[in-house]
Amino acid sequence: MQRSTLLLLLVAGALAIGLFVALQLGGGGGGDAPRVVLQGDGTVRVDDAADAAPSGSGLDARVAEQDELALPPEDAPPTVYADTLQVFLDLVRPAGQLHAEGQQAMGSGAHAELIGGLWTSARAGVRGSVRFVSGANEGRVLECDAGGRFGANDLYPGISVVEITGPGVPGSLREVLLRNGREARLNIGYGRLSTVNGEVVDQRGDPVVGATVRFDGVPIETDVDGRFTLQGLAGSHGDMVVTVEKEGFVPLRTKTSLMSGSTVPFGQHRFVLQDPGSLEVYIAERIGAAGTAQLYLMPANAMRGTGDFAWHRLNPVTVQPGSTTVIEGLPPMEVRALLFHAGAVSKPRVATAVVRAGKATAMTIHLEPAPMIAGKVTHDGAPVARAVVRLEAPDRSQAVLNYLGESASYLETQVVSTLPPGSQAVKTDDLGNFRIGWFGDTDRPRYLTATSFDGKLWAGRVVQPGTREVSIALEPARHGDRTLEIALADRELPLMVDVQIDGAPQDPRVVHPNEQLRVHGLMEGDWRLSVRWKREWLVDQRSIRVQDGAEVWLDLPGLGEPVEQE
Predict the structure, then answer these.
(1) Which of 124, 281, 511, 550 has its CA 20 to 30 A from that of 104?
(2) DSSP per residue over 137-171, as a string?
(3) Do the beta carbons of residue 190 and residue 177 sit within 8 Å?
(4) Is the separation of the CB atoms in 319 and 295 below 8 Å?
(5) Nearest 5 degrees, angle CA 93-CA 97-CA 100?
(6) Per-residue buried b or exposed e for 273-297, using 16+ beta carbons within 10 Å of the residue's own CB
(7) pLDDT over 90, % of the chain
(8) For the chain, how many helices (H) and strands (E)?
C-alpha cells in the first residue's frame, strides 16, 4: 500500500513539473522604428514610427532546402492556410554607399551564397551561430532562426573555415568553398553522433605522446601509445577540419568525412607529423611608419602543400624592420613571403626560400619608400581615439589576386585571408591620428572609412590616387532601422509567412486577418523584392527603395483550404 502511494506521488510530481515547463513557453516582441508603407491602392506613406511585430524574414534553389528545417512559431493559431507566403529581400545598394565614378562600389565582389541548417533530429532545429574564423569572410557571424536555418548571399569567394556553436550540441569546425554567383550548402545533424579512433606517429613510425588532436573542433590528447578516442562528433561530407599539433613537429591540418552514427576503428585515421624547419627573416631597412610590419608566408607553388599546413593560422607574422625574426615549425618546402609596412614596399615584392627540416633558412627583405596616407579622425571638432580606419579596394578578392599575380582559381587551393592590397585597418592614437599604407594598384581610387570604437559613429570617403593627407569627421552611423510594410489581400484566416533578408532566414511568423506584413531592421537604400505563393512568383526581383517607397500590392489568388496545425 505504501509502495503504491509513493508511486502515485512520484507520477503526480512529474506531471506537475511538465505542466510548469509547458506554461513557461512563449514569445513576442515590440518596438518602434521608421517605416515605409506600400499600400494596396498604389499610394505611399512614410511614417516616423510603426508598431513592431515579431521579426520575420531567399530563391528556388534555397527554398526547398530551408523549408525542411522551418518550424512554426510557438504562438501559431490552430488553423491557418495550407501554403506559406515566401518573401525575399536583397539589399542592392545601401544609402550612402561609397562609389567612385567609373569604378565598382565598395563591397563589390561579395556575391557568394551559403545556406544550411543545424538540427538534433528531423524536427528539432538548433538556434546556433556560424562564425567565419578564417578566410576572406573572417569575423562574419550568421545566426540561425528557430528552425535552425541560416544563410547569407553577400559573402566573399574562396575557402572559408567556419565554427558552429549552439545550445545542447558539441559544435563543429567545417570548411566551405564559396563561389560568386553560386550556392554552397552546409547542413549538420547532431541527432546521431559518431566515435572516432585514431593515432599519431612521427616520420619514423613512433607514437607521438601528448599531441593535441582537434577533430571537428573538439580537442583531445594522444595517450602513451599515440592513440586517441573521440566521441560525440557530428557526421560530415568531407568538410570536417582535423588539426594535429605537438611542439617540435610541423602542425598538421587536413579534412575528412564521417558517417553519422558510426564508429571508426583504429587504423583508418593515422596522422604522420613531420620534422620542422625554420625561417630567419631579416628586414634590412627602417623605412616608413614607426612600428611593426606584417609578413605573410604561403607555398611558392599554389598546388603544393594545400590542406596539410594551415598557413592562414600562421599569418600574419609580426616583424620589426631593421631586425631579424625567426619563424619556427614550418613544413619543408619552398615558400614565398610578402611584407607589408606603411610607407614602404618590399624589394623584391615577393621573396622565396626553401625551408629544410632541422635547419634554419635565412631570408633578407629590403624596403624602399611607398605611398602612405596620414590623417586625423574627429567628431564635433574633437579627436577620436581608438577609431578603426580601413582602406579598402572596391573588390577585395580581385585586388589580392592581382597583387599575387594569380587567377580566381587560386582562392580554391587554400584558405586565403584578405591581404592589405584588398583591405587593411589601423587604429587612431590618442590624438585621433593615423597612418596607413597604399598597396597594390596606385592608379585607381580606394575607399577610406572610419568607425568609432563603439560602432556608433562612422564616415567614409573616396580617396583618389596621389592623396597623402585625409581628414575624416564622424557622424552617427547608419543602422538597419527601417520597417517595410506590404499590404496583403483580405483574408479570413491567419497566414504563415517566411521572410529572408540577404539570404538570412528569419523566424517563421503568422500574419493575422486585417493585419499587414511588416519587415523590420532594413537599411535605407535600394532593395530587390521577390514574393512566392503556391510555387508561383507574384513579384519577381522587383526594385524598390526603402526610404521613398514603392508601389506593391500582393493579391493572393486562391488562398485554398485551411489546415490544422499539429
Answers:
(1) 550
(2) TTT-EEE--TTSEEEEEEEPSEEEEEEEE-TTS--
(3) no
(4) yes
(5) 110
(6) bbebbbbebebeeebbbeeebbbbb
(7) 67
(8) 4, 45
From CA 275, how far away is CA 353, in angstroms rounded? Answer: 18
The three cell numbers of residue 437 are: 599604407
Query: Which residue from 285, 118, 250 is spatially nearest to 185, judged by alpha carbons?
Result: 118
**Strand duo 457-463 + 293-299: pairing:** unpaired
Check residue 36 and give its pLDDT: 38
Query: What nine digits make up the cell of 288?
Result: 616608413
Which helix H or strand E contains 10, and what residues bound it?
Answer: helix 2-24
DSSP letter string, 62-121: HHHHHHTT----TT--SEEESSEEEEEEEEEEETT--B-TTSPBTTBT--EEEEEEEEEE
What DSSP state is assigned to residue 292? -
86 CB-near residues (< 8 Å, 6+ apart): 63, 497, 498, 499, 500, 531, 532, 533
Domains located in the chain, CATH noted: 35-91+480-564 (no CATH), 97-189 (2.60.40.10), 194-273 (2.60.40.1120), 277-369 (2.60.40.10), 372-474 (2.60.40.1120)
The amino acid occupying position 447 is Y
Amino acid at site 104? Q
Tell me, what amino acid is at 63?
A: V
The torsion angles phi and psi of 126, rounded to 5 degrees, stand at: -110, 120
Strands 263-264 and 194-202: parallel
Stretch among 42-56, 104-118, 149-163, 512-526 having the lowest mean pLDDT: 42-56
* Cα within 13 Å of Cα(170), Cβ side: 22
| Res 10: pLDDT | 39
CA atoms within 13 A on the CB side of 564: 1
Q: At CB < 8 A and 24+ separation, what contacts does 267-270 make?
A: 268/197, 268/198, 269/196, 269/197, 269/198, 269/199, 270/198, 270/199, 270/200, 270/201
Contact 86, 496 (CB under 8 A): no
Measured between alpha carbons, how far is 78 from 91 in angstroms, rounded to an integer?
35
The strand pairing partners of 385, in sequence order, are: none
Q: Which of 94-98, 331-335, 554-558 has the lowest mean pLDDT?
A: 554-558
Lowest mean pLDDT among 183-192, 317-326, 389-398, 510-519: 510-519
Spatial neighbors of 23 by CB under 8 A, at least 6 apart, are none
- Do 239 and 255 form a contact (C-beta atoms < 8 A)? yes
Alpha-carbon distance 451 to 385, whole Å?
10
Among the residue ranges 126-140, 170-184, 293-307, the one predicted with the least confidence is 293-307
478: closest CA among 34, 38, 30? 34
- The 10 Å Cβ neighbour count of residue 73 is 17
Cell 629590403 identifies what position?
A: 366
